[in-house]
Amino acid sequence: MLLQNKNAVIYGGGGAIGGAVARAFAREGAKVFLAGRTFAKIDAVAKDISASGGVVETAQVDALDEQAVDNHADAVAAKTGSIDIALNAVGILHVQGPPFAEVPFEDYMHPITAYTRTNFLTAKAVARHMVKQGSGVILTLSTPGARLTGQGFLGNGVSSAAIEAFSRILAGELGASGIRVICLRPHAIPEAVATSHTREPFSGHATRAGSTVEDWLAGLARTGTLLKRLPTLAEVANFAAFVASDRASAMTGAIVNLTCGSLVD
Questions:
Q1: Which residues of the chain have pLDDT under 50?
Q2: What is the pTM of this model?
Q3: In the chain, N or C terminus with fewer CB closer than 10 Å?
């Protein structure tokens, strides 16, 4: 097992990506600590993990609340003796679709402020414990918007670019303490869009194109990716498990391209 005897905290563990990664971590032997604002969602993921023989605990945590995040990380570290892996998979509902001239400043700033805040707070909370133990892996999430240009996703693109910059620089901050920092950059995942907050932002694009979200995503896959498809939750989750494991121990400061070729590095 890739993650045997590892303790992993997943913020946004009840979401589509967070839940998929949590299940993959548990299958690979990690003890998983799910944190999220909506208890019903993290409880559903926890039941799946337990039913498959995994070890999991849940906590209702607002990942934008510094004190709540710190208290939870401290409690996990006190109970287990270490925090080996942390993933921030928190999703922030925001507006996409309208062109620049129609975007209020508040709608532009909301994803930038929220995503940078939650990633800073969660990384800082777990890094305090990782520094003491001299090891750890911090995973973040961005989107292809960090590198693309076009209409309707200015706030999303700037926030994604900020998370990627944050991840690269944080790797430099923490590398000497044995901590790796890696940002996963998947494209839109149809399975996730069907059940998560991302459906609403993509609806803005689809509506303006006179299409459904499903048809808009299908067109995106056909014309915007080299593989003519979009990634699956399993692909993203399995790669997260690999990159969090010791098999990827030479990797840090990396932005991982999981876009099926919508971007070419």
A1: none
A2: 0.94
A3: C
CB of 208 closer than 8 Å to CB of 152 = yes
What is the Cα–Cα distance from 36 to 24, expressed in whole angstroms? Answer: 18
Residue 2 lies in a domain: no
30 occurs within a structural domain: yes
Q: Model confidence over 247-264: pLDDT tens digits?
A: 999 999 999 999 999 999
- CA gap 30, 57 in Å, rounded: 12
How many domains does the chain fold into?
1
Q: Would you state the structure tokens that stand for residue 37, as one six-digit string?
A: 């604002």
Edge-first strand listing for the sheet containing 31-36:
55-60, 31-36, 7-11, 85-88, 136-141, 179-186, 254-258
Rounded CA gap, 110 and 112, in Å? Answer: 5
Short-list 249, 251, 261, CA closest to 185? 261
